[in-house]
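Note on ligand handling. Small-molecule inputs were canonicalized before submission; formal charges were left as drawn, and no protonation-state enumeration was performed. Where a ligand contained multiple stereocentres, the stereochemistry in the source SMILES was retained. For zinc ion, this procedure yielded the string shown in the input block below.
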Amino acid sequence: MIENVVEFFRNLPAKLCSECGEKINEQHECYGNKCDGCMDPGKL
Ligand SMILES: [Zn+2]
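Structure output:
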């Protein structure tokens, strides 16, 4: 069952940065739709 869940997430389309189109690291999904490079460091 766990393998099915992993496969499910693996098949999801990668989120792309709304600024530069770079693929966003999924572990930062809480940041919204911008990559690390386009993220405003001041907001942290
Ligand atoms: Zn970006």
